[in-house]
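STRUCTURE:
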């Protein structure tokens, strides 16, 4: 019995020193982590193009001086930034000892749908990024019937199939080193404006095929070389491109 009691006493006596070591170690770590060495001194922003670094920092309500472990409000910064429709993905990381890195994946504005005298800026997935009264330097889409606009959500139009085809045309335009000032939907297809008075007419599919093959670009270059900047380029397919000096 005495041997058992002695073993129990030894176990209890051995527990307290270990416990004190753990407590002291925890206190030392806490004091070290709380030192000014780990106060946030700077913010680094990567992946942004639409917003500047300073704008991102302001939008996130970022401030220096707080402890990087429990005073940097990393979660709050992420939540604030993700409310902006241009932010597709936001990651906020601690970079020891004193820096916060904000990694941004932005939605890219690719076109603007004309809505009366206003413009609805969208990305390739038709997400509404913003509404503006100032004409943006983007391909304008005309001739659609808008039924719903909510920032951060896909634009709602009655011509859903035509809208998707126009967006595919704009994607192909960027991939094939082309630029249309505007794409206008009409009953027989679309009008894609190279210049205000130089228009490509055809279906979205035929214009896309002509761009992909490079034949449309060659036709436009020939017109420019001849100082022709007015007329209609009729596109019936990859191999069927004609030009008329008249505008419809």
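SEQUENCE:
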């Amino acid at each position: 019995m005495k041997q058992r009691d002695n073993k129990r006493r030894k176990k209890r006596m051995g527990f307290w020193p270990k416990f004190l070591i753990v407590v002291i170690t925890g206190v030392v770590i806490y004091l070290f982590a709380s030192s000014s060495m780990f106060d946030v001194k700077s913010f680094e922003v990567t992946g942004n193009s639409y917003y500047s670094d300073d704008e991102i920092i302001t939008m996130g309500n970022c401030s220096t001086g707080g402890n990087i472990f429990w005073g940097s409000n990393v979660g709050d910064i992420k939540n604030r930034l993700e409310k902006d429709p241009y932010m597709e993905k936001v990651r906020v990381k601690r970079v020891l000892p004193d820096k916060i890195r904000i990694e941004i994946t932005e939605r890219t504005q690719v076109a603007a749908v004309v809505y009366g005298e206003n413009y609805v800026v969208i990305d390739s997935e038709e997400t509404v990024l913003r509404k503006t009264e100032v004409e943006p330097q983007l391909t304008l889409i005309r001739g659609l019937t808008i039924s719903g606009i909510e920032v951060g959500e896909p634009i709602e139009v009655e011509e859903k199939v035509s809208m998707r085809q126009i967006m595919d045309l704009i994607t192909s335009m960027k991939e094939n080193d082309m630029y249309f000032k505007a794409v206008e939907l009409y009953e027989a297809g679309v009008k894609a404006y190279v210049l205000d008075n130089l228009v490509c007419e055809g279906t979205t599919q035929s214009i896309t095929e002509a761009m992909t093959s490079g034949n449309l670009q060659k036709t436009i270059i020939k017109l420019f070389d001849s100082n022709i900047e007015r007329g209609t380029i009729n596109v019936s397919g990859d191999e069927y491109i004609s030009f008329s000096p008249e505008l419809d």
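REMARK: The first helix runs from residue 2 to 33.
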